Amino acid sequence: MLSLIHKVVLGMAALRVLSGCIEIFAALLMLRFNQIEKALLVNSGLALVGPLILLATTTLGLVGLADKLSWGKLAWVLAGVGCLFIGILKK
Known about the structure:
Blueprint lengths: L6 H27 L2 H30 L5 H19 L2
Helix pairs in contact: 1-2, 2-3
């Protein structure tokens, strides 16, 4: 079955699994420390992981589609990702 899965899709899925494992590990750390201050510190670290994983998976997807997308459509996708990051990072 793995021979039927596209390499880019496998890479994107692997990044998402890695992200999920990091989230679970962070939750276990919060439980282990059992202190609000340390839990907030761990949670703050996760605030960096989410956008980085989003950027990496989107980049992989765009690389996989690069030969199929026109420059105009690629610009729209990049503009959309840019809007996501503005919405995430600006408070």
